[in-house]
Here is the input.
Amino acid sequence: MGAWTLFRIRQMGRNAIFFFQGFVLIFSLPFQATKIVQQVYFIGMKSVAVICLTAAFTGMVLGLQGYYTLVKFGSEGVLGAAVALTLIRELGPVLTAIMVIGRAGSAMAAEIGIMRISEQIDALDTMDIHPIRFLISPRIGGALISFPLLTALFDVVGIMGGYVTGSLLLGINPGIYFARVESSVQMSDITGGFIKSVVFAVVVITVCCFQGYFTHQRPEFGAKGVSVSTTEAVVISSVLVLVTDYVLTSLLL
Amino acid sequence: MASAFIQFVDVHKSFGDNAVLRGIDLAIERGQITTIIGKSGGGKSVLLKHIIGLMKPDAGEILIDGRPLGKLKKRERRELKRRFSYVFQDTALFDFMNVFDNIALPLRERGGLAEEEIRRRVREKMSQLDLAEIDHEYPSQLSGGMKKRVALARALVTDPEIILFDEPTTGLDPIRKNAVHTMIADYQKRFGFTGVIISHEIPDVFYFSQQVAMLHEGRVLYSGSPEELQQVSDPLVHQFIRGFEARRNGAGQAVPMETWEVRFKEEMGRLQRHQVPFSMILLTVENMHEITAKAGPISTQETIHNFAAQVRQRLRITDSCTRMSLNAILLILPYTNLEQSRMVCAKLARELKAADFVKIRPYAGFCFSISAGFAQAAEGQELEQVLARAVESKEAFYEFSVC
Here is the structure.
C-alpha cells in the first residue's frame, strides 16, 4: 500500500517533469511549426466528426431530459440556459477530453510505445535529436491548440442539439431558447470552460505520451508492454480528467 | 594505453540480477576497425550502447579521448554525439517516414544545410548502397536486407568519425554481405573513421578489422589483432573461432572442422589397429599480408577459396582438405607415409602451376607464395602434436608460387 502510494506520487512527479521538458522545448529553435500543424490536424481536425456526433447527441439528450424535468415545474422556458450552462461549464470540456483520449491519446501511446521498443527513440538520441523535443513537444503544442477549439465546437453543436429536441420536437419557442442561452451564459463560464479544456489537454497528452515513452520500463516486454501502456494511458488519463474536473470546478466556482 | 581513443576501465553493468558486463577493460584505437565477437546475449550490444551513452555503467568509466564520458557537460556530450553514428541491430528505422526522409533526417535536424545539398548527399549514399528508386517506400514495405542497408545509409550520411555497427550484416544474403563488408573496409580506408563492429561473421570480419575483442561472461577474454587471435592457445577462443569456421564451412568448402577432427580420430584408430600410416600436409599462404594490402580482403579470400577448390579437385578420393585458418589449408592423407605425401604435394604443385585458378587477378604480378609442411602421424599422438610437427617442417623446397 505504502509502496503503491509512493510509486504513484513519484510517477506524478515524473509526469510533471516530462510535461515541462516537452513544453519548454516547444519554443526551442528551430521552431517545429510544421510538426505542430500536423499534430493539430491529427488531434483536432480528425476528431471533428467524432466530436460533432457526440456533441449533437449529448445536446439532444440534455434537451429531452431537461424538458421533462423542467416541464414539471412549468419552467421549460429555461431549457436553453440549462443546456448551455451544463455544456459550457462541464460536459463540453470533459466529453471532448474523453473522446480525444479514445481517438488520439491511445494512438499516441501506442505509436510512441512502438517507437520505444523498436529502438527508434534510442536512434533519435544517437543522432543528437532530442527525442522529447522531436516527438512530444509538437504533440503538446498541437493539443494545447486543438483542445479549446474542439471544446468550443462541442459546446456549439451541443446547444444546437438541445435546440433540435427542445424546440423542433417538443415545441419550445426557438426565440426563448436562444434568448435564455444568451442571457444566462456569462463570460466567466466560457473562460472557465476553456481553462478546463487547456488543463485537460495537458493532462491527456502528458499521460498518454508518458506511458508510451516509458513503455520499456514496464515489467511486460514488447507488444505486451505496448498494449498495457495504451490501456493504462486511456484509463489513467480518463480518471485524471474527471478528478481534475472536480478540483477545477470547485476552484472556479 | 593512455593514447587509446575509447577506453573502457573496469565497466560493470547489471540488469536486475543479471550481471551483463563484469569488469570490461578495452582500448579502442583511433582510425581502426575493432570487431567485438562473443556469444549472443553476452553483452556485446550493451557494451556498444555504453560508448554512445545510451546506457550508463553501474561502475567503472569510459574514457573518450582520455576524458570520462560520465563527467562531460551537456554541450560537450552533444558535440560528441555528432561525431558518432550508430547502426542498430534491428535497424530502428522510423516507420512513419519514407526511406528518403529516414536517411535525410539526421542532416535535416542538424541544420545548416540547404535542402538541395541534403538531397544530393542522400542520393549519393543511396546509390552507393544499391538503394535507388525506393525513395517513397516505407520501411515496413522493404525486405530485411534493404532495411539494413537503409540503416547503414542513415548512419553514413553524416560522415561520422566513429561508427558503431551492431551486427550490420546479419540477415543479408552472401553477396550483399560481402558488399557491406567491402563498403565498410573501403569507407574506412577513405575516410579513416573509427569503427566498432559487433559481428558473427567470422572469419569475414577478420579481413578488415585491425583489432578483435572477444567477450565472454561479461569480460574481455581476449583482444588483439586477428592474426594474433588465431594463435591464441585459450581453448575458449579456439572453440569459438573454430566453431564459427566449421559452421560456415570455411572458404575451402571441404570437410567442416568437426568432421576434420573426426577424420583425424578415424585415421588414428586405423593406425592403432592396423598400423596403416597417414600423413598431413599444411599449405600456408605466406604472403597473405602483402596480397590483402594490395588486393583488398574480399578478393583475396575469393582467390584463396578458388585455390582450395582446385587443391581439392586434384586430391585422391580418400584425402580430405580443410581450411584451417585465414591462410592455411590442411590436407589429411590416409594410407600415405611421409615420403609419399611429399610426392603428392610435388605433383600438386606442378599441376596447380599449370592450372589457371586465379580467376580474379587484382594486380599485376599477383602470386601466392605457398609453403608446405609435412608430418606423418605416430601412434597415440594428438592432433595438435602432429600439426605442430607439420608447422615445424615447413620446407622451403616445396615452397611454390602460383600466379
